[in-house]
Amino acid sequence: MEKFSQRAFLLCLLAALLSVPAGTALWSRRDTTAYYENRSLTEFPALTAEALWTGTLGTDLESWYSDHVPGRTTLLKADTAAQLNLLRRPAVNEVVPAGDVLLPLLSYEERAGSEYPALAKTAAEPFGKLSAHIRAYGGTFCCAGIPEQRVYFRDRYPDYLPRHETEVTAGDGAYARAMAEAGVDFLDIGAVYDAQGHRPEYYSAVDHHYSCYGAYTAYRAILDHLAEAGRDLPVLTEEDLEFRELPNPYIATRNRKLYNLWPNEERAVIAVQRGPVPFTRYDNGEPSDRPLFVLPAEDCLPATYNLYMGGDFAETVLETDRPNLPNALIFGDSFTNALETLLYASFNETRILDLRHYDKMSLRAYIDTYRPDIVLCVQNDTFYYLGGGNNDVWEDP
Known about the structure:
Strand order of the largest sheet: 6-5-14-12-13-11-9-10
Shape: globular
Strand content: 15-25%
Structural class: alpha/beta
Helix content: 25-40%
Number of helices: 12
Radius of gyration: 25 Å
Number of strands: 14
Distance between the termini: 85 Å
Order of helices and strands: HEEHHHEEHEHHEHHEHEEEEEHEHE
């Protein structure tokens, strides 16, 4: 009788242990992505002899279980709420609630100011070659440097947390000087913002990008700069646009990491043309019916910066069928997205590349293929000294 009881207990214990992963396997079919973490969930690993022999199966199963355990999002959300409201931690999920804005938690390590001149010279060299190449066939090249949100609001950081001030005071200046010395037409949008009073509405409180107002100011600065270079282009004035506030809650990148628990009344704004310039769109080489603004299906659904152009694409082409206007190529990261909704209206054909994703040919080969009249690089200043991606602009023949 005692042995039977022991065996029954062991069977019940085994059943209980197996029920957790079995229940998780059934539950995991519901979701394939972690919305708030903005990533795909781990897929169930392949049960192979090699994985079992090398020990990777156990690690992969642990990762899968961690991603798919029932109630995972609820638990993470509860933990975030406790850290925000009860413990009042200075940083939660690597996000710093800094007064009326959300900023990223930065490392305490930072480059010394003396390192930047040499780094900037190296970073500017390929842009100098690209600029000379474009000028050689009669084209115009301009690089617009745009502050990232955490740079724009760096004074909001608490004194006891790093804000990477040297990166801005030494790094940004060194980069601008090096670009000029390399023969690159560099436009400092940060200086434009400062000249207009460094207005807080130019940037989002909960996202790492600028707002529609900041994007429009950058747009006007770019077109004014091109006009000074002799390019006569049509301009969308404020009278040509309706700045429309969306009803959707703006969860964006920073509050998304906080499960939208940080009190926030911000709403995304779009600049709608009163007399729209029609266009034909292609994304990654395929015809696309995406509009300039891809809005949530319902007003109650959250919006993110991806509403501008529908997010990042390796290549987007907008054709307006106005051959009397020049053709343009814009390359850069997601800061181009909001600009694209405005800039395309000034050109016959606008090609947009994100070199983090585009791999069909080099940028130089692309330029040689299409010979755009105007090439515009849009760089956010936290990417100035990163290799690859939209800094990979030159390939020697």
